[in-house]
Amino acid sequence: xxxxxxxxCGHGSxxxxxxxxxxxxxxxxxxxxPGVEFATGYLEFARPTxxxxxxxxxxxxxxxxxxxxxxLFAASHVKNDLPWEINSFAAxxxxxxxxxxxxxAIDPNLLRAAADRIGMAAPLNGVDRSDxxxxxxxxxxxxxxxxxxxxxxxxxxxxGMGFGWAETAYSGVAxxxxxxxxxxxxxxxxxxxxxxxxxxxxxxxxxxIYAQSAAVARQFPEIEFVDAPYLRDHPAVLDAFCxxxxxxxxAQPAMNCQLCKYRTQIxxxxxxxxxxxxGHHHHVRGIGVDAPDGHGHSHPHHDxxxxxx
Length: 309
Known about the structure:
Number of domains: 2
CATH architecture of the largest domain: 3-Layer(aba) Sandwich
Oligomer: single chain
Order of helices and strands: EHEHEHEHEHEHEHEH
Radius of gyration: 20 Å
């Protein structure tokens, strides 16, 4: 038994494949983090919940907990919901040291994983990459800082891999949406369009992205559409998670708050600055995993995500 424990915090999903992939990544991480207690927890739609996972680690003797968000960017889940869960547990257990890590963010490891996924799906095979367009698809939130990260990822992959052009799109909330972006991209004159969902795991949204790609491809048979796989458990993704755990071992890392709409008045989101941190998943913890008919509670989210993933 060790005193230090690591919790990988997921959102949860109605899609069992998404949960299975999250747990697959967690199993691989376990092998890289010997000597510590290890657990996964979810905000909703899956169990154990974050609170239950923390309680279980405490019951196994952990007195120092390192909670790492299993999420790519810091939107409302990383800025509000997870900290609320972590802070609530810490307040109720002052004898336990709890540290909360930062999002995976734009990380060289993740860029390397993305380039590998894209290169594997769209090998050159006589096609000059400058004749190809890359479409990078993010989840989409009403947090402009998180949305802008997708544009930066697209730009770095565009220049780093030598694509002729790159576009960004979002699966929901933000614009342009996938079908709009693909239709526009198809009119730019490129012989190949590579669609890359910048997601960690599968789910309703990723499957919808691929379906939209197939639908637009049928409208433009003269263009080769290539669907690149999402990040999943690429070794470099595991490297990024291990780096976040290592940060927490050394100190309490801070997220980039320079353009956070909750800390700074951002154009169009001035009213969000200084908003009280509050979780909104307390009424749906673990919901949807016990009902025999598979139906659960549907609820709106202030970050605008489509969470029925």
